[in-house]
């Protein structure tokens, strides 16, 4: 009697998937159907606008298109011309300097500010608002503000000289050798607050027992941060790096507002190069070739990161 009962098929729980394979597949498709339908516009936009626009840009980067797209193929001529143009080479050098310095200094400044605020200081909310406020401004406003601050006639240089230091010189926006660092100062001023907030959220997620155990063991605070806390904040650092990298690739309006790419072409960046050739010079093929190179540079960084991030999770799940 007991064996006969055990041999019988167990019915599915109310609201759960049916026991047969075909029924389970249909139940899986039907589940959250409204949510899946709601994502269709986003999927359509991603496929048609982003993917379609990307393929269109790559296609016409191999043509001799000027003001309007034409299907007159010239092979890699646009790319050869691109890498033989001094303006493009200078823009690549500038974005490399700006990018490396932004990644390093944004993380260091943001983490130090977050560590200070994490000490439960007085007026924490006020300081947090002050540090984060620049991020609420547009890059155009930031560029104009720092253009005035760095102006040698009434900016930092003039203020310091008014205290008697007549030989003091600080004029980065008019010096072709260091102009990109003047742009970097404005970028750090605006972006470090966001990094601080992200890092502070990560620090607040560290359990208090870890800090107590470190203090009991006599581990100095700096070593606790370096050996214990920072490795535990890996997801926060990854998210922050992705956000910073996205801002670096598309830096455009900050340069336009501060220097307009000058003096000469000393502060040129790839996004401004693409914009000028697409709209100002009416050279569609050259502009699309430059934008395709920018896309490839992003993929070179993004694909290995995605493989390491999601591939390791999959191996841990199946391992």
Automatic annotation (TrEMBL):
Organism expressing this protein natively: Candidatus Amphirhobacter heronislandensis
Key word Transmembrane present in the record? yes
Q: Tell me the Gene3D superfamilies matching this sequence.
A: MetI-like
Subcellular location(s): the record lists: Cell membrane
The way this protein sits in the membrane is described as: Multi-pass membrane protein
Span-the-membrane segments of this chain are 33-59, 95-117, 129-149, 178-203, 224-249, 288-308
Family (UniProt):
Belongs to the binding-protein-dependent transport system permease family.
Q: Which UniProt keywords apply?
A: Cell membrane, Membrane, Transmembrane, Transmembrane helix, Transport
Recorded hits in PROSITE patterns, A to Z, give: ABC_TM1
> Does the UniProt entry include the keyword Transmembrane helix?
yes
- Where is it mostly found? membrane
Designated name of the protein: Sugar ABC transporter permease
Please, which domain of life does this record's source organism belong to? Bacteria
Q: Name one GO cellular component term.
A: plasma membrane
According to the entry, every stretch annotated as the ABC transmembrane type-1 domain falls at: 92-307
- Which GO biological process categories is it annotated with? transmembrane transport
């Amino acid at each position: 009697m007991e064996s006969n009962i055990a041999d019988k098929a167990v019915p599915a729980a109310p609201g759960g998937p049916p026991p047969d394979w075909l029924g389970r597949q249909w139940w899986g498709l039907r589940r959250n159907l409204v949510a899946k339908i709601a994502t269709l516009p986003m999927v359509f936009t991603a496929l048609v606008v982003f993917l379609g626009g990307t393929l269109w840009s790559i296609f016409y980067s191999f043509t001799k298109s000027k003001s309007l797209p034409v299907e007159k193929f010239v092979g890699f001529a646009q790319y050869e011309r691109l890498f033989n143009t001094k303006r493009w080479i200078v823009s690549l050098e500038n974005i490399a300097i700006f990018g490396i310095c932004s990644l390093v200094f944004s993380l260091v400044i943001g983490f130090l500010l977050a560590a200070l605020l994490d000490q439960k200081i007085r007026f924490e909310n006020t300081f947090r608002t002050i540090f984060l406020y620049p991020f609420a401004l547009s890059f155009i406003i930031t560029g104009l503000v720092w253009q005035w601050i760095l102006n040698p006639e009434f900016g930092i240089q003039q203020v310091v000289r008014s205290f008697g230091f007549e030989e003091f010189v600080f004029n980065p926006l008019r010096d072709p050798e260091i102009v990109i660092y003047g742009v970097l100062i404005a970028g750090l001023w605006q972006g470090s607050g966001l990094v601080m907030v992200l890092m502070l959220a990560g620090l607040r997620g560290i359990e208090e027992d870890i800090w107590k155990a470190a203090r009991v063991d006599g581990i100095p605070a700096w070593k606790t941060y370096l050996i214990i806390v920072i490795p535990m904040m890996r997801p926060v650092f990854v998210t922050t790096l992705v956000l910073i990298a996205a801002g670096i690739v598309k830096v455009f309006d900050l340069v336009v507002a501060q220097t307009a790419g000058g003096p000469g072409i000393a502060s040129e960046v790839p996004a401004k190069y693409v914009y000028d050739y697409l709209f100002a010079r009416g050279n569609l093929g050259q502009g699309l070739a430059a934008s395709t190179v920018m896309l490839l540079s992003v993929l070179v960084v993004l694909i290995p990161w995605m493989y390491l991030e999601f591939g390791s999770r999959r191996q841990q799940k199946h391992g």
